[in-house]
Structure formats: structure tokens, C-alpha cells
From TrEMBL:
EC category: transferase
E.C. number(s) listed in UniProt: 2.5.1.9
Protein name, as recorded: Riboflavin synthase
Recorded metabolic or biological pathway in which this protein acts: Cofactor biosynthesis; riboflavin biosynthesis; riboflavin from 2-hydroxy-3-oxobutyl phosphate and 5-amino-6-(D-ribitylamino)uracil: step 2/2
Organism: Liquorilactobacillus uvarum DSM 19971
Pfam family, one: Lum_binding
Start-end of each Lumazine-binding repeat: 1-97, 98-194
Chemical reaction(s) catalysed: 2 6,7-dimethyl-8-(1-D-ribityl)lumazine + H(+) = 5-amino-6-(D-ribitylamino)uracil + riboflavin
Assembly: Homotrimer.
Record function comment: Catalyzes the dismutation of two molecules of 6,7-dimethyl-8-ribityllumazine, resulting in the formation of riboflavin and 5-amino-6-(D-ribitylamino)uracil.
Amino acid sequence: MFTGIIEDVGNVQKIEQKKETICLNIATKKIDLENSRIGASVSVDGVCLTITAKGKDNFAADVMPETFRITSLAKLRPGDAVNLERAVSVGGRFDGHFVLGHVDQTTNVLRRYQDQTALIMVFKMPSRLQKQIVTKGSIAIDGISLTIIYADKREFKVGLIPHSQQEATLAGKRIGDVVNLETDVMAKYIEKQMQTSKF
């Protein structure tokens, strides 16, 4: 489980692809890999992956076909920047919201504009997730815990404070770029309960 508070912006060093499977090698400057074991979970642009090998300042992780098809990781190229976060440790602070690293689907940037110090980013509303994306609710976009400013049937908006603009990759996204979405897990369970309840 993750919080959506990005620890580092890593850099994709190498990609090995065989059909719809990928092995990513990612460099990190801030994450202490000496205390991260093989088999530990790490969020890469909001996708929960498993560390399969590691060096002093880099690690490898495999992407299976399901993840290849549903997330933006298939579009990565060497040199690309990615958001990184280690799984929450027992007893650690929980500053964002419950993020599982289980991406629901991708969407595209529609617009972006400045509102004083905040960068407002507008995304296309995926019809399948419409009931789970609500104004003032939580969402993870490329692994970043954000509050939804506004949502309707066509689009939804989030705002990035200056710190978020500097410490993660989202501010660098342009119109048309693809991002990973994970809705609030509570919204998923509530929607499922509403679908299965008999009145």
C-alpha cells in the first residue's frame, strides 16, 4: 500500500521488452535501496511493481501483460522520468490517501492553466470511472495523491501546488499526454455495494 506522496523522480535507464512483458531498470537518487529488499513493492508512476534486482542507486522491476495493456508503462522510453514511492512501512506516517498501486485505466490531459500559484490540470473523464471520480474526492494520477477540484461527465480537474509541481512529473505533462488513474478504493467498494444491493 502507498500514500501517493512521491519520494523521488527516477529515471528509466534500460527497457527490455518481449511482446507484452517488460523489464524496467530505473535509477533513483533519493530512495535508500540498501534498506529495500528484493521482492519489496515500489510504485512506478502509480503502478505497484516488485523489485526483482537492485544496485546501489538503481533497481529492476517486471511488467506483466495485464499491466502492459492497462497502464502507461508500455509507452516508457529510456531517459523518461517516473514518479517513485516505496510501500508504507508499519507504523509509518500516512500523509496522502490509501493508494494500492492498482491502476484502473489511463486517460489524457485535456487542458492546463495557471491559477495564481496553482497549476490546474484538466483530464478526460473515463465513462467507466465516472461514478468513482467526484468533486472533493481523492484520486491518484501517476501515483500522486490529489484532490479532485471539479468533476462532470466530460472532464475532471486537479490542482498542483508549487511543491507538487517541482517534486513529481505531472506538471511536465502536455495536452494529449497519457496518465495512469487510480480512483479511491472506498469509492470502488461503495459503487459495488450499490450495484449488488437489493432495495
